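This part of the workshop introduces the protein records we will be handling. Getting from the letters to the C-alpha cells is the skill we practise here. The record below serves as our worked example for the rest of this section.

…
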Amino acid sequence: MKGTSTALCGNVELGSALSQSEDMLNKHLELSAQAQDMAGELSAAVELVTQLEELESVEAAQFSGRSGLLREELRALSRSLAERVETLRAYVCFLRTAEEVDERMQSLQQGYRERPQDEVCEEESECRWQGLLERFLTMQDQGHGFIRSSTMVSKSLGLDVTAAVGVVEKAMAHLSKKKAALMDLWVSWQLQVSHIKSVKKQWKKFKEHLKKTVHDLEAMGEVLAPVSSADLGSDLVTVTKLQENFQRVKPHLMQLNAEVEYLVKISELFTQRGIPVKEKSEKVAELLHVHQGVKEKAKECENILGTAVRFHQVYDELENMLLSTSASPLPGTSHAHLQLTQHQERRSHAHHLYQLAITLGAEVTNAVRQAHALGFSVQRLQGRLERLQRESEGWWAEAERREENLLSNVHHCLFKEELHELRESFKELKKKFNNLKFSYVKRNEKARNLKAVKNQIQQMELYVEKLQVLQKKVQTFALKVSTSTEKQLVGGGPREMEDAVNELRRQLGDLGKALEEYKQSLERTARLQQAVDEFQFWCDELSSTIVRVGKFSSECGTKEAVAVLYRQFEKFVWPMVPQQEERIQQITEVALRLHGPEEGKKFVEKTTARHNEIVESIKELCSGLLDLEAKLP
C-alpha cells in the first residue's frame, strides 16, 4: 500500500504523445489490480481480527483500529486510482481516434489526387469519405467530452489535465483544418467524377439519398422522444439505462451527421452542373432544418443525461460518506496523526463532492427548463438536492466536532509521548546513578581511594546537571499541560496529565535528594580519606624522624651535642601533636556521621591507636635522649 501511495503522490501531468499516455494508463491499471489484491488481503485480515474479538483477545482492539486505518487509506487510494484511470482512459481513447482520423485523411488525400477510374472506385471512395466523417465527428465528440469532464477533476487528485486539454484542443483544430483542406480536394475530385457520369442520373440518386436521410432523421427524432417522460431524479440505475439507450442510437446519429455534411457538400456541385437552384435549395433547406432539430435535441439529451448520471454517481458516493460511521480515536501518535489526516482528506473530498453535486444538479435543472422539447422531469432531483442540503448540514457539524476530537487525540498522544520520553530519561538517569553507586560499593577498601572518590564526585556533579536539565524540561512540559484546554486533551483531560506530571516531579525530587545525599556522602568520604592520608603521612614522616634522631643520638659524644639534638627534636615534634589530635577529632566527627556510631568508632580506634603509638615513641625518644645526656661527661 505504501508503494502504491508513493506512486500516486505528487502532481502527474498527462503526456502529449499517445505511447506515453498509454504507458501511464497501463501503469495505473496495474496499480488498480494491486489495489484489488490488497483489498482481498485486507478483508482476510479483518476476518482474523473479528475472530480475535470473539476470543476476547487483548490485542483485538489495537488490530481493529489499525485495520480501520488501512481500510480507509485503501478506500481513498482506490477512489483516486479509479478517477485517474477514467480520465486517462478518456484521454487515450481520444488520442487513438485522432491518430486514426489523421491516418484516414492521409490515405484519402493520396486517393483524391488521382483521377477516378471507374464507378466502383467512386463508390468505394464515397464510403471511405463518409466513414472518415463519422470518425471525425466521433473524435470531436470524445474531445469535447474530455474537456467537459476535465472541469470536474478534483485538485486533490494530483492529476494535471491543463496540458492535456491544450493537446486535445490543438489536435481538434489541426484535424478540422486538415479536414477542410481535404474537403476542397474531395470537391475537386467529385467535379472530375461528375463529368464522367450523367447529371440527371446523379441528381436522381442525390434526391433519393437526401429523402432517405431526411426520413432517417425524422425517425431518429422519434427514437429520442420516449426518454422525454422520464424523471431524472429517480436513481442511478434508471438514469444510466436512459443514457445507455441514447448511446445505442448515437452511432447511427453520428452516421446521419456525416451523411448530412456529405449531402450538403454534394449539393454545391450540382449548382455548377445546371440543376435548378431553387429546387436544390428547398430540398437542402428541408434537410438542414430537420437535421438541426434532431442535432439540438440529441445534444441536449446527451448533455442532460450525462450530467444526470454524473450527479447520481456523486450523490450516491456522498450519501455513503454521510451515512458511514467513524472509528474511535486511536492511541499512538503516528496512528492519531494518520487518522486525523484521513478525516481531513475525507472531509475535503466530501466538500468537493457536495459542491459538485449542487453544481451538477443545478446544471441538469437549468438544462431541462430550457429544453422544453425534451420534457424531462426534475421534480425528484430537486427533492434529492434539498435532502442533500439538509443532511449535509448535520454532517458538516459532526465532521467539525470529529476533527476537533481527533485533533485533541493527537495532542493527547503527543503529550503522552513527551511524558513517556521524560519518564524514560528519568529512568535512564536513575539507572546510571544506581550503577555508579553499586560499582563503587562493590570495590574493595584499597580500590576506594581518594582518586576513586573524586571520580565519583565528578560523575555525581554531571548527573546533578542532567537532573537539573530534566527538571527544567518537566517544568516546561507541566506549564504546557496547565495551559492546555479541555479540547486539547481527551480521556481524563488535563487533570489526569497533571497528576502524571506531578508524580514525575515527585520522583525527580526524590532522585535529586538521593543524588545530593550520595554526593555529600562522597564529599565526606573524600574529606575523611584526605584527613586519614595526611595523618598517615604525618605518622610515617614522624616515624622516620624518630629513627633518624635515634641514629644521630648514638653518634653524639658530648652532653652539649645531645642537648642540642633533644631541643631540636622537641621543638620540631611537640607542636605537631596538638594539630594531629585536632585532625583526629575531625576524622572522628566525619567517621561517625559517615559510618554511624559503631562503625565510625571502629574506624577511629585504628587512627587513635596509631597516634598513641607515635606519641609513645616520641616520649621514649625524649626520655632516651635525656638519659643519654645524663650519662655523657
Q: What stands out?
A: The mean pLDDT is 79. The CA atoms of residues 37 and 510 lie 57 Å apart. Residues 443-631 form a domain with the Methane Monooxygenase Hydroxylase; Chain G, domain 1 fold (CATH 1.20.58.60). The radius of gyration is 51 Å.
